[in-house]
């Protein structure tokens, strides 16, 4: 996997943690796999390791201050921001994470972050209590929602004498994890249609039938597909997530609206190469929607007649013209493999990605794990951040498409 970093331009940001000494080895490890490395340091980082050390190892001057007359005459922070393929901050302190979330730009490192379109990767390092604090965790959630990759931290003895989560990953592990986050542009020229999130089926103007889907997995798949070079259209149910960079988005509310949007994309808007149905579409809707809010009566309960919604992924799989390669999702609480394979056959899908929901996986979680099935095989994607899992799924889909085309 590490060969995927060959030729990559990595800007290493070093911040004020005792773990900053590991930056020296990290520079070497990145160079060993063929990456080109330049370094930017905060003032606090210079208290732990000298810029001369990292300059000598990287072979480039270390960028230190925002208001450097020589550098800023050529807009040095903009130059670095444009140069990098990846902006790796290791170690990333709790303060640094907070400043990134706030959009601060009063030092060189944070100014580069705002000016750069490079992928942001943070390898946190801090005291275990600081790591577990709700503020830090909320900052991490915010960064992930913007597409940042968080590597680690590890658990063990800490410089403060305590034990727990918060240790910087070892440099070799950072390089391995970074390599696993790289998706080659294998989908360049591909047109991909993705659905994500729940649907809300109205009962009256106030109430609806819905589910716990957060949309995070579908948005991660859309981001991974865009990273791989695809032209991506994302049809999203009612979720509060930011649109991934490079992705076109169309919002819907109900299953009927999602069905109509999908079919429009596959017919009126021209064919799509791949359709990935990640959305947790409601299976049923109210037979009749009340025009006004239903009032609670003295009776115990009500009877609510339901009818089935349109099965979107099955309808796409059944198309005779403009049929894309169809990938479905199955969220199950038991017998995951059995139910997924049955759904694969019954709906005529090309592939299905199954995940168990619950146990801090699936809905509303930042992590997921998949069992992927197709007619002649299967592959497991181990538990990890949803974006990492999504990138693995993209690789599996393309591998199977290529295998089918040569068979």
Strand order of the largest sheet: 12-11-8-13-16-17-18-19
- Secondary structure tally, helices: 14
Coarse morphology: globular
The level of helicity is: 25-40%
- Which structural class should the secondary elements be placed in? alpha/beta
Q: How many strand segments?
A: 19
Using the coordinates shown, work out and report the CATH topology of the largest domain: Rossmann fold
| CA distance, first residue to last residue | 26 Å
The main pleated sheet reads as: 8 strands, mixed
Which band does the percent of strand residues land in? 15-25%
Mean pLDDT: 87
Which regions contain 5 or more consecutive residues with pLDDT less than 50?
Answer: 71-75
Q: In the residues, how many domains can be counted?
A: 2
> Nearest-angstrom radius of gyration?
24 Å
CATH-level-4 superfamily name of the largest domain: CoaB-like
CATH architecture type of the largest domain: 3-Layer(aba) Sandwich
CATH class of the largest domain: Alpha Beta
Structure, explained:
- The chain has two domains: 2-180, Flavin prenyltransferase-like (Rossmann fold, 3-Layer(aba) Sandwich), CATH 3.40.50; 191-288 and 302-406, CoaB-like (Rossmann fold).
- The strands form five sheets. The protein has an eight-stranded mixed sheet, sandwiched between helices. Strands 2-1-3-4-5 form a five-stranded parallel sheet, with helices on both faces. It has a two-stranded antiparallel sheet with strand order 6-7.
- By secondary structure, it is an alpha/beta fold.
- The chain has 14 helices and 19 strands.
- The protein has helices at 23-32, 51-58, 69-72, 76-83, 94-102, 108-115, 128-132, 134-145, 171-180, 216-227, 255-266, 312-317, 336-346, 386-406; strands at residues 9-14, 36-41, 86-92, 119-124, 149-150, 154-157, 163-167, 191-196, 201-202, 208-209, 231-236, 247-251, 274-277, 284-286, 306-308, 325-332, 351-356, 367-374, 377-385.
- The longest helix has 21 residues, at 386-406.
- Strand 6 and strand 7 (163-167) form a beta hairpin.
- Helix 1 packs parallel to helix 2 (51-58) and helix 5 packs across helix 8.
- The chain is 33% helix and 24% strand.
């Amino acid at each position: 996997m590490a060969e995927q970093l060959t030729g990559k331009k990595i800007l290493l940001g070093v911040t004020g943690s005792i773990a900053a000494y590991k930056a020296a080895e990290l520079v070497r490890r990145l160079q060993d796999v063929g990456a080109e490395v330049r370094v930017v340091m905060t003032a606090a980082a210079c208290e732990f390791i000298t810029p001369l050390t990292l300059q000598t190892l990287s072979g480039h001057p270390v960028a230190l201050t925002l208001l450097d007359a020589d550098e800023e005459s050529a807009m040095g922070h903009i130059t670095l921001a444009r140069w990098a393929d990846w902006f790796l901050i290791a170690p990333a302190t709790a303060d640094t994470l907070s400043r990134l979330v706030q959009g601060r730009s009063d030092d060189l490192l944070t100014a580069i972050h705002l000016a750069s379109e490079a992928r942001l990767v943070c390898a946190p390092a801090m005291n275990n209590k600081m790591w577990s604090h709700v503020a830090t965790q909320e900052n991490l959630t915010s960064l992930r929602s913007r597409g940042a990759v968080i590597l680690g931290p590890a658990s063990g003895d800490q410089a403060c004498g305590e034990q727990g989560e918060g240790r910087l990953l070892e440099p070799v592990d950072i390089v391995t994890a970074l390599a696993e986050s790289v998706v080659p542009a294998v989908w360049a020229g591909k047109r991909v249609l993705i659905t994500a999130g729940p649907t809300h089926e109205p009962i009256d103007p106030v109430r609806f039938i819905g589910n716990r889907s957060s949309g995070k997995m579908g948005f991660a798949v859309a981001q991974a597909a865009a990273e791989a070079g695809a032209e991506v259209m994302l049809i999203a149910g009612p979720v509060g997530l930011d649109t991934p960079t490079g992705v076109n988005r169309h919002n819907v509310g109900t299953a009927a609206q999602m069905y109509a949007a999908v079919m429009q994309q596959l017919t009126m808007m021209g064919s799509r190469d791949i359709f990935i149905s990640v959305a947790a579409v409601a299976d049923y809707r109210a037979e009749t929607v009340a025009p006004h809010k239903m009032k609670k009566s003295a009776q115990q309960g009500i009877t609510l007649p339901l009818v089935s919604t349109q099965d979107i992924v099955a309808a796409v799989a059944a198309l005779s013209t403009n049929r894309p390669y169809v990938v479905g999702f199955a969220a199950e609480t038991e017998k995951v493999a059995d139910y997924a394979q049955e759904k694969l056959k019954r709906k005529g899908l090309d592939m299905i990605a199954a995940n168990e929901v619950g146990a801090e996986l699936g809905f509303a979680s930042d992590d997921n794990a998949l069992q992927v099935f197709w007619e002649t095989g299967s592959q497991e994607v181990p538990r990890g951040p949803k974006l990492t899992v999504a990138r693995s799924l993209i690789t599996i889909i393309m591998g199977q498409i290529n295998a089918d085309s040569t068979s």
